[in-house]
Amino acid sequence: MHIPDNYLSPATCAVMGAAMVPIWATSGGKVKAGLPRTKLPFLGICAAFSFLIMMFNVPAPGGTTAHAVGGTLIAALVGPWAACIAISVALLIQALLFGDGGLLAFGANCFNMAFVIPFLGYFIHTFLKDRARTERGGLIGLGVAAYLALNMAALCAAIEFGIQPAIARDTAGLPLYCPYPLALSIPGMLAPHLLVAGVAEAFFTVGVYAFIKRVSPGTLHDGARQRIPVIYAIIVALVCCSPLGLLAKGPAWGEWGVDEIKDLVFGGKPLGFVPSGMAHGFSLKAVCQDYAVTGMPEWAGYVLSALAGGALLIIAFKLLGLLRKNQEPARKA
What is the pLDDT, as a whole number, of residue 231? Predict the structure, then answer.
């Protein structure tokens, strides 16, 4: 679901980025006003949750791969506004350091994964939880919310891909960016998410939420007491198991390299050309492109990338908590 650079036109990227600005601003204000400083380190853990679960690619129909995001889980733990910030920061780290998702497409990726998933998932979860008569019913509702929210985000990405041939063409009438119209992008994106990634999202969300509720109920959205050290066990387990994400070969739908797209077959025939906007567009070489580390085996680089990315997110939010602590006496004076 990570849209690379040059798949969307500059105009689309600008519109999606502009749409996210007020969302980020409001989310930041809500977090500053409503989330206690003591919970900021846990917000870093939530960001690490999302970063790490997105590294677990699973095989999907058509030889592609897909992954969960964890947006509904984070919204259930800390609320949708805080979830938006956590996932946005995780996506930024992925784009800058690991080349997972484009920098120009950052606004679009955040809209799909940091806005649509946590807010829609939180709304559906709250709606179903209020009508559930048992705890098991509430967990089932959480799983349904996670499944539906992830697939809605996939639909949004499919629409962003699919409108490109209609809005951006060269003088010869060929698409400048993503060449596949809505008739191909919607089933192409939704099939792996409806059949595979949505199920993975639901199981991950329910499993982690139930575990946290059992070992640290104060961690939940309106709780008071947290046992963060216990929750670090989930982070460690995800880091150690991250090479499992390498078992699923093939890129996700819409994440092909420029050297691959020419030979992709849809409708029984290959595309046969590389859209010029993709071939000559913006390119950023990430430090650890595709979570690989020079001179290390693929699996070791993946583990090191998982460890570095997760640790960076946790440390960043801890530092933010310390900064807020230092500012509080100044405001009271």
Answer: 78
Beta-sheet pairing, 64-66 with 58-60: antiparallel
How far, in whole angstroms, is CA 186 from its chain's centroid?
A: 19
C-alpha–C-alpha distance, residues 323 and 46, integer Å: 19
Instruction: Report yes or no: 172 and 278 within 8 Å, Cβ to Cβ.
Output: no
Percentage of the chain modeled with pLDDT above 90: 68
Q: Is 90 exposed, middle or buried (0-12, 13-18, 19+ CB in 10 A)?
A: buried
pLDDT in tens, 210-265: 988 887 766 665 544 556 677 788 899 999 999 999 998 888 888 888 888 888 87
CA distances from 107 to 15, 23, 54, 157 (A): 8, 11, 18, 12
- Which domains, from first to last, does the chain contain? 10-332 (1.10.1760.20)
| Other residues' Cβ atoms within 10 Å of the Cβ of residue 173 | 7
Instruction: Report which DSSP code applies to 3.
Output: P
Q: 0.70 exceeded by the pTM? A: yes
pLDDT mean over 17-34: 95
C-alpha pair distances (Å), 144 with each of 128, 199, 233, 330: 9, 9, 26, 45
